[in-house]
Structures are given as structure tokens and as C-alpha cells.
């Protein structure tokens, strides 16, 4: 593993849906002020970055795990040909390097560059395993990303789905200069698609809590009160409820009934309910 490189988030990450940059919708926190639409957008994009990083790492690790127990030559179709994966096996560990070069487009259209390193025990038969991840010169849609995580992963067993439980923190610096930090604890359960080899049928349930701090030093806490359902075939969370708090005031965001759409119901501190447009990085 590269020494001195900060570790980056691997698992248990949520997506916070945001308001459209072109919308005037703000999140009302009563007398303490509002969280602006742009601020929510940055928070959303930061967590999208984290989830896609987690998705890459999970796919690479799961491919190794499934190949060990499968009678067939298992291969996932998630990583594009521009992502080069190499493995070095030591007496006790496997060291994976995923190199994206100067730019590599993922199946969902997001573009990453730089290098990701994974390290974990080479004994794939262990019931639980700690996975470490670090990044080097990594960008996501032009955002420079750093940070780290330690993830305890449990594999699929009879009657139980694979899970990743992570304690993590990371930072992102946007091309416009906006900088944010995010940290927390997340559990990500792989409920559908494990072992199929097709990335499009993967479904995860996400739970946990965390904090998001913007450049101005304003920190808000985010807690999942109803598990968020993430389907890889959809760019948005399709169901679940997220509570957002700051200075003792709270608001909530309901992601819907399972439909893949860019809509959510936002309830502010005063009980006002509004449908908001959810948006991710603009496609250029």
C-alpha cells in the first residue's frame, strides 16, 4: 500500500438528494437560517462520489470473493476496459491496484481518474474481513477527492446478505473551489444481484448517520430513519427517509415509493412539505 496517502471511503455510503441548482428551493431551519439549494447540491454530489467509489471497491472485492467459491470463471461487467486491475499477493494479504489513467468513464456516465488501492486478508474464507482503501491523485467528474475508511465486511451466507460496515471520512474540492468534508458510519447491505455478474441488477439498502461540513464551517448531521434503497440501474435513491439536522432543528427528505425518478418530498422545520427536483452532476 502507498504510505502517507489518506484512505478513502469504501462502504456504507448514502446519497443525499439535492435541489436543482437552478431552483430557488432552500431547506428551512427556522431562526438558524437555511441550507441553500447549492449547498444541498454540493452535499449530494459529495455523497454520490463516495457511493461510486464504494461501488468500484465493492465490485473488485466481490469479484475476488465470488471467484474463490464459484465453480465457474466469474467475471463482473461493471468496470470498463479503461480500468486496469492488478493484484499482488503477500503471505497474508491481497493488494489490489485499480488504475483509471487520465480519465475513465463508468457505466453510469461518471468519469474518474487516478488510482485506487485495496488491501485485505488473502483468506477469502474468513467470516468477516477488514477492507482498507486509499486513493492517489483521484478525481471524480473533476472533483479532487481524499479521505479514508476502514470497513468490516461480512460475506454472503445462508439466509444472510453481504454487508459492509464502515467508519470513514473524506474531503472533496470542486473545480470552482468549494471544499467540503463528510464523515460518519454506514452499513450497506447487498440485497439483490450478488454473484450475477451484471452490474445493472445490483440493489443495496443503506443505513447509518454522518455529518457534512461546508467551507464556511457549517455542519449538519444526516441520519437515515428509513433505509435508503439504491438500485444501480437508477441514478437516484428510490425510497427511504433521511433526516437532516443543524443547531437542534431538523428537516426530512422522503425519496419516494420505489419509482426511479428525480423527485423527493422535503419537509422543513416548520412542517412545510414541498416536492423538490433531485439532480446530480450535470452532463456536459
Number of helices: 1
Structural class: mainly beta
Number-wise, the strands total 16
Beta-strand residue fraction: over 45%
Low-confidence segments, given as residue ranges, are: 1-24, 28-32
Major sheet: 14 strands, antiparallel
Give the N-to-C terminal Cα separation: 35 Å
Overall shape: globular
Helix-strand pattern:
EEHEEEEEEEEEEEEEE
Averaging pLDDT over every residue, what do you get?
80
Radius of gyration: 19 Å
Oligomer: single chain
User: Helical percent range?
Assistant: 10-25%
Please tag this protein with its features.
284 residues, mainly beta, 1 helix, two-stranded antiparallel sheet, 14-stranded antiparallel beta sheet, disordered N terminus, 16 strands
Report on the structure:
By secondary structure, the chain is mainly beta. The protein is built from one helix and 16 strands. It has one helix spanning 37-69, and strands at 27-28, 34-35, 84-89, 93-99, 104-105, 111-121, 128-140, 143-154, 163-173, 179-192, 203-213, 219-231, 239-246, 249-257, 263-267, 273-277. The strands form two sheets. Strands 3, 4, 5, 6, 7, 8, 9, 10, 11, 12, 13, 14, 15 and 16 form a 14-stranded antiparallel β-sheet that branches. Strands 1-2 form a two-stranded antiparallel ribbon. Strand 7 (128-140) and strand 8 (143-154) form a beta hairpin. The protein starts with 26 loop residues before the first strand and ends in a 7-residue tail after the last strand.
Amino acid at each position: 500500500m502507498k504510505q502517507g496517502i489518506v484512505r478513502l471511503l469504501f462502504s456504507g455510503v448514502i446519497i443525499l438528494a439535492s435541489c436543482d441548482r437552478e431552483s430557488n428551493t432552500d431547506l428551512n431551519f427556522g431562526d438558524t437560517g437555511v441550507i441553500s439549494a447549492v449547498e444541498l447540491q454540493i452535499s449530494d454530489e459529495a455523497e454520490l462520489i463516495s457511493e461510486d467509489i464504494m461501488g468500484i471497491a465493492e465490485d473488485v472485492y466481490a469479484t475476488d470473493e465470488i471467484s474463490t467459491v464459484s465453480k465457474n470463471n466469474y467475471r463482473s461487467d461493471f468496470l470498463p476496459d479503461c480500468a486496469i486491475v492488478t493484484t499482488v499477493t503477500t503471505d497474508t494479504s491481497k493488494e489490489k491496484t485499480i488504475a483509471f489513467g487520465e480519465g475513465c468513464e463508468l457505466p453510469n456516465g461518471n468519469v474518474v481518474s487516478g488510482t485506487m488501492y485495496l488491501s485485505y486478508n488473502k483468506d477469502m474464507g474468513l467470516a468477516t474481513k477488514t477492507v482498507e482503501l486509499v486513493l492517489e491523485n483521484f478525481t471524480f467528474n473533476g472533483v479532487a477527492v481524499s479521505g479514508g475508511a476502514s470497513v468490516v465486511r461480512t460475506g454472503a451466507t445462508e439466509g444472510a446478505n453481504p454487508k459492509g460496515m464502515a467508519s470513514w471520512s473524506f474531503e472533496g474540492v470542486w473545480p470552482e473551489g468549494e471544499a467540503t468534508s463528510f464523515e460518519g458510519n454506514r452499513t450497506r447491505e447487498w440485497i439483490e444481484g450478488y454473484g450475477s455478474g451484471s452490474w445493472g441488477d445490483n440493489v443495496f439498502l443503506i443505513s447509518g448517520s454522518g455529518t457534512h461540513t461546508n467551507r464556511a464551517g457549517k455542519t449538519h448531521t444526516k441520519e437515515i430513519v428509513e433505509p435508503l434503497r439504491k438500485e444501480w440501474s437508477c441514478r437516484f435513491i428510490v425510497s427511504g427517509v433521511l433526516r437532516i439536522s443543524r443547531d437542534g432543528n431538523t428537516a426530512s427528505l422522503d425519496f419516494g415509493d420505489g419509482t426511479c425518478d428525480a423527485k423527493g418530498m422535503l419537509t422543513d422545520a416548520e412542517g412545510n412539505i414541498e416536492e423538490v427536483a433531485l439532480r446530480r452532476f450535470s452532463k456536459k
